[in-house]
Write a structure and sequence with these properties.
The protein has 462 residues and is of the alpha/beta class. Helix content is 27%, strand content 23%. It contains 14 helices and 18 strands. The chain has helices spanning 57-64, 104-109, 118-126, 149-165, 179-189, 191-197, 212-221, 237-244, 248-251, 290-298, 317-331, 388-391, 415-425, 431-437; strands spanning 26-29, 37-41, 47-51, 67-70, 75-78, 83-86, 135-138, 171-176, 198-204, 267-275, 278-286, 303-306, 309-312, 340-347, 349-357, 376-382, 400-405, 455-459. Strands 7-1-8-9-14-17-18 form a 7-stranded mixed sheet, sandwiched between helices. A hairpin with a 4-residue loop joins β4 (67-70) and β5. α4 packs across α5 (179-189). The longest helix has 17 residues, at 149-165. One of its GO terms (biological process) is lipid metabolic process. This is Lecithin:cholesterol acyltransferase family protein. Keywords: Acyltransferase, Transferase. It comes from Quillaja saponaria.
């Protein structure tokens, strides 16, 4: 069991009795959906957790989190004019990225779907890291662009804090998923600051060239973070869809059209056309350029009702233009001399790549019907979310790249991932106490759950 637990997870103790070793500080950076969000009343200042929560999740999400993009500022702003979205910074930033629903019920049943960096934090504490001295977290408003000023400034402050708290030691960053894109943007825009404060960057499951299947479908039909019975207590796919259409971060994870894909990702639609009393059914394909016109047509009638008002949410070309600028910033990123980069990418899981809507027997007539259609995918190797091809195409001079058989979120509690991190941080000799205190379990997921972790390395000089 995790967290020093002996009987029930809710009684776990995260404190370590280890004497702090001579360690460089570690900063954990979360990805899309990987930070707790609070809704803060502008008048009274009280806060309500709106992401993640199990009870009243969908209701609170629609009331407090639904947002629209402001092209004048570049920020996505909540529709609820009486509140604002904030990220708690408790526990040196670790609280917001640890257990995303930290309620007593969730802890006692150990609902791993919302246990985010929890196991990794425990592992690092067991290796001698101390919160507030050598261990910090950075949660952020993941609705926003990965290069927006507020997020860039927040990351800079975290790096400075970790640097000073550890007595002027450079920081080792461990990022997950979209958090890698945020770090990449920071490195591109603030290269000298990055060079000053960062020693190593360990990247896990980052969609460097995009996540075609998942992101294309997110813009068309939404995203469901939790499957099965638990989904009834979570934010609905449709509610999430209405948020993501206005999120710059989602547009920034569209497939990179400049990248030389082994096969160009496509969106396919079984389409019915009627003319002069004749009906024809055909399979239409949309590539990286053509998919934009498909998004425009499919979302032209998309709207939501908030507080009695109808809000139109078509495909947002202002965000698309902004995202193109972000993609260029990421392409221009250079790893500073003296900073070592490591990349872990997920393998061995079926990962959506092409997306298909409708069928030959039940074709789509009007493209707006797609938004109410469940997709069918063609798959490639990856972590169920990010194709391995994209995740390992970082374009940086990596010291080491490692492919680990694991799911996207499961990599954050994977034993092999922990071993790699310990090796790259140079704390392998401090693992004994951790192995006695914490039991690491492999996550199970689909037909690959019985497979053991497999690591393949591509080595480069730093």
């Amino acid at each position: 069991m995790a967290g020093g637990m002996r009987f029930c997870p809710c009684f776990g103790d995260r404190n370590s009795d280890n004497v702090e070793e001579d360690l460089d500080p570690v900063l954990l950076v979360s990805g899309m959906g990987g930070s707790i969000l609070h809704s803060k009343s502008k008048k009274f200042g009280f806060q309500t957790r709106v992401w993640v929560r199990i009870l009243l999740a969908d209701l609170e999400f629609k009331k407090k989190v639904w947002s629209v993009y402001n092209p004048e500022t570049g920020y996505t702003e909540t529709l609820d004019e009486k509140s604002e979205i904030v990220v708690p910074d408790d526990d040196y930033g670790l609280y917001a990225i640890d257990i995303l629903d930290p309620s007593l019920v969730t802890k006692c049943i150990h609902l791993t779907e919302v246990y985010h960096f929890h196991d990794m934090i425990n592992m690092l504490v067991g290796c001698g890291y101390k919160k507030g001295t050598t261990l910090f977290g950075y949660g952020y408003d993941f609705r926003q662009s990965n290069r927006i000023d507020k997020l860039m400034e927040g990351l800079k402050v975290k790096l400075e804090t970790a640097y000073k708290a550890s007595g002027g030691r450079k920081v080792n960053i461990i990022s997950h998923s979209m958090g890698g894109l945020l770090v990449l943007c920071f490195m591109s825009l603030h290269n000298e600051v990055f060079s000053k404060y960062v020693k190593k960057w360990i990247c896990i499951a980052c969609p460097f060239q995009g996540a075609p299947g998942c992101i294309n479908d997110s813009l068309l039909t939404g995203l469901q973070f939790v499957d099965g019975f638990e989904s009834y207590f979570f934010v609905s796919r449709w509610s999430m869809h209405q948020l993501l259409v206005e999120c710059p971060s989602i547009y920034e994870m569209l497939a990179n059209p400049e990248y030389n894909w082994k096969k160009q990702p496509e969106i396919q639609v079984w389409r019915k056309h009627s003319k002069d009393g004749q009906t024809n059914v055909s399979l239409e394909s949309y590539g990286l350029t053509g998919s934009i016109s498909l998004f425009e047509e499919a979302l032209r009638h998309n709207e939501l009702n908030h507080d009695g008002k109808t809000v139109a949410l078509p495909f947002n070309f202002a965000i698309l233009k902004w995202a193109a600028g972000t993609r260029q910033i990421m392409c221009n990123a250079k790893l500073p001399d003296g900073v070592c980069f490591y990349n872990i990418y997920g393998t061995s899981f079926d990962t959506p790549f092409d997306v298909c809507y409708g069928s030959e027997e039940s074709p789509v007539e009007d493209l707006s019907e797609i938004c109410h259609t469940m997709p069918q995918y063609s798959y490639v190797d990856g972590d169920e979310t990010v194709p391995a091809e994209s995740a390992k195409a970082d374009g940086l001079p990596a010291v080491e790249r490692a492919g680990v058989a694991g799911s996207h979120r499961g990599l954050l509690r994977d034993k092999k991932v922990f071993q790699l991190i310990q090796k790259w941080l140079g704390v392998e000799s401090m693992v004994t106490n951790y192995s006695k205190t914490f039991q690491v379990k492999r996550p199970t997921a689909g037909k690959y759950s019985s497979k053991t972790s497999k690591v393949t390395d591509d080595r480069y000089s730093c």
